[in-house]
Design a protein that fits this description.
Shape: globular
InterPro entries: DUF6510
Oligomer: single chain
Order of helices and strands: HEEEEEEE
Protein name: MJ0042 family finger-like domain-containing protein
Largest sheet: 4 strands, antiparallel
Number of helices: 1
Pfam family, one: DUF6510
Distance between the termini: 39 Å
Length: about 90
C-alpha cells in the first residue's frame, strides 16, 4: 500500500487562488439554522476587537475577522461550507 499523503504546503497554490476572491459574494450555510446566504447578507458587528458576522435568521456567529500588524485571523466555524466562483472561471 502506498502513502498518498503530502505535506500541507502542497495546498499553497490552491489556497492562494481561493483567497484571491471576494468572499462577500460567497454563499454558505449557517451551521446553526442551515439558512443559505451570501456572506454579504450577514449582520456585521464592528464594536469588537474585529469584525463579527452573524446569521440574519438565527443570530448565530458565522465568521470573525481580526487584524493585527501584518497578519489576520479568520474564523469561519459558523459556516458549514463556502461556494464561490474562481477568478477567470466562465
Amino acid at each position: 500500500m502506498t502513502d498518498n499523503r503530502l505535506d500541507g504546503n502542497a495546498a499553497g497554490g490552491a489556497l492562494r487562488e481561493v483567497f484571491a476572491v471576494d468572499l462577500t459574494a460567497a454563499t454558505g450555510q449557517c451551521s446553526n439554522c442551515s439558512q443559505r446566504l451570501a456572506l454579504a447578507e450577514s449582520r456585521l458587528y464592528t464594536h469588537a476587537p474585529g469584525l463579527v458576522g452573524r446569521c440574519p435568521g438565527c443570530d448565530a456567529v458565522l465568521f470573525r475577522l481580526v487584524r493585527g500588524p501584518g497578519r489576520a485571523w479568520l474564523d469561519l466555524r459558523g459556516v458549514t461550507c463556502l461556494q464561490f466562483a474562481l477568478p477567470g472561471a466562465t
